[in-house]
């Protein structure tokens, strides 16, 4: 493993500069790192710098680290150039398994020995992605939540051939870099947060497909209901409070039988054209003329307001 400690890292390489990769670039810049990015798309640099510029006002409000500057971003011409002097690598390529396997093998070959390489994959186990890498022990999953520059969570887990030391190093690095880290005990497809989010998403699609609720009603049901509690207290502890003074035990005794009620359909519905069109049209209607840029700015400010209101704006614990 690398002799560089997480605290000593100064240069990060971000491979892939789309929404997630670009969000990582913005985050690392805001935390005072030198960042080298690479993406094979011909217009990648223009889009990346535009994304960073759009994120910067939110990052200023969150609080920049000493020395943080957009001028510390370099866009490399090749993958090899991007990782040549990297002390940590964050891969954020599209979610295609063969692409991930090939790219991680290429990164492993090009990155200095011992440097940890993390994948932003939203669902693939590292065991399935590290199969062709020469030194798979340094490959870990570092799964963020979108946008990485704003949402604190990152889930860290290794594959069957990942060294435990690499997982521990990555977890500590993300902590130093200002993230809220969950180091998972074992691999599970989709990790923790995406599995929970996907269950809600599937039920929402069923309700739209069956004409049981509109896109607007589904969003309102969360933002005006449980989402207000989830902003500072997760579903488990929230349910414990439903048990009153008896806590979770009383809640389970009282509401346990409802687990047999037909309140959810976890199998995904068929995403046919009718459902596809209904979801797209519903989102357009809900946006009510606001552009994606408008909605991004609104989302960013909303998250900042929640973080401030719950005492977590500058990394404080709730």
TrEMBL record:
Residues 190-277 form the 3-hydroxyacyl-CoA dehydrogenase C-terminal domain. Transmembrane segments: none annotated. PANTHER family: 3-HYDROXYACYL-COA DEHYDROGENASE FAMILY PROTEIN, 3-HYDROXYBUTYRYL-COA DEHYDROGENASE. Catalyzes the NAD(+)-dependent oxidation of L-carnitine to 3-dehydrocarnitine. InterPro entries: 3-OHacyl-CoA_DH_NAD-bd, 3HC_DH_C, 6-PGluconate_DH-like_C_sf, 6PGD_dom2, L-carnitine_dehydrogenase, NAD(P)-bd_dom_sf. It comes from Streptomyces kanamyceticus. Pathway: Lipid metabolism; butanoate metabolism; Amine and polyamine metabolism; carnitine metabolism. This is L-carnitine dehydrogenase. It is an enzyme of class 1 (oxidoreductase). Pfam families: 3HCDH (PF00725), 3HCDH_N (PF02737). GO terms for cellular component: cytoplasm. Belongs to the 3-hydroxyacyl-CoA dehydrogenase family. L-carnitine dehydrogenase subfamily. Signal peptide: none annotated. Its EC number is 1.1.1.108. Keywords: Cytoplasm, NAD, Oxidoreductase.
């Amino acid at each position: 493993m690398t002799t560089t400690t997480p605290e000593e890292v100064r240069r990060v390489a971000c491979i892939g500069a789309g929404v997630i990769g670009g969000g990582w670039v913005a985050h690392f810049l805001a935390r005072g790192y030198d960042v080298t990015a690479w993406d094979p798309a011909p217009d990648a640099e223009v889009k990346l710098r535009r994304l960073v510029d759009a994120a910067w006002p939110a990052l200023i409000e969150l609080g920049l680290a000493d020395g943080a500057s957009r001028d510390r971003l370099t866009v490399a011409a090749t993958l090899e150039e991007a990782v040549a002097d990297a002390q940590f690598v964050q891969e954020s390529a599209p979610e295609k398994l063969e692409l991930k396997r090939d790219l991680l093998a290429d990164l492993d070959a090009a990155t200095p020995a011992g440097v940890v390489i993390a994948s932003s994959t939203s669902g693939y186990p590292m065991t399935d992605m590290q199969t062709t890498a020469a030194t798979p022990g340094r490959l870990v999953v570092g799964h963020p939540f979108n946008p990485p520059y704003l949402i604190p969570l990152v889930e860290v887990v290794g594959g069957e051939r990942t060294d435990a030391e690499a997982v521990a190093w990555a977890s500590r690095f993300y902590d130093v870099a200002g993230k809220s880290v969950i180091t998972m005990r074992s691999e599970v497809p989709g990790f923790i947060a995406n599995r929970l989010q996907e269950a809600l998403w599937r039920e929402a699609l069923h309700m739209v497909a069956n004409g049981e609720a509109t896109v607007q009603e589904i969003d309102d049901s969360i933002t005006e209901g449980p989402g207000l509690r989830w902003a500072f207290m997760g579903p488990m502890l929230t349910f414990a409070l439903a048990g009153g003074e008896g806590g979770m035990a009383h809640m389970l005794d009282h509401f346990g039988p409802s687990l047999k009620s037909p309140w959810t359909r976890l199998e995904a519905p068929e995403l046919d054209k009718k459902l596809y069109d209904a979801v797209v049209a519903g989102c357009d209607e809900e946006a009510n003329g606001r552009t994606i840029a408008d909605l991004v700015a609104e989302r960013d400010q909303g998250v900042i307001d929640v973080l401030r209101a719950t005492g977590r704006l500058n990394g404080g614990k709730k």
